[in-house]
Design a protein that fits this description.
mainly alpha; about 0% strand; globular
């Protein structure tokens, strides 16, 4: 599949998962995230296109949601790490998608000692 088709399928899967968090929708979203991970995605965020931006926004939102399964969250984080392949993309993930606070939320939710404060540096 080409990148546009994969991103459209991913965005639809994100929306379906948001609407109804069934095992089937979780598996479908996981599969689409993995498909996009298998494509060459460098400079995808720098393209300024709406579709990649909507996909990343949805994925960042789901990754930061404590109700998202840990396996799906890990797959999303892996894709985001892959997208951060250059300085421009890293800066965009940081500034446009508020990724730092999302990562802090994930760490806090899945830490072994949730009562301890989390300090960002």
């Amino acid at each position: 599949m080409d990148m546009t088709t994969c991103l459209k399928s991913l965005l639809l899967a994100v929306q379906q998962y948001r609407d109804n968090r069934t095992a089937q929708n979780t598996a479908q979203l996981q599969r689409h995230v993995e498909e996009v991970s298998g494509l060459k995605c460098e400079q995808l965020l720098a393209s300024g296109q709406v579709l990649p931006s909507e996909c990343v926004s949805g994925l960042v939102e789901l990754a930061g949601d404590p109700n998202t399964s840990p396996a799906l969250t890990a797959t999303i984080i892996s894709l985001l790490a892959q997208l951060a392949c250059d300085d421009e993309s890293r800066e965009m993930l940081h500034s446009s998608y508020n990724l730092t606070s999302t990562l802090a939320s994930i760490i806090h939710c899945h830490s072994a000692t949730p009562g301890e404060p989390l300090v960002l540096q």
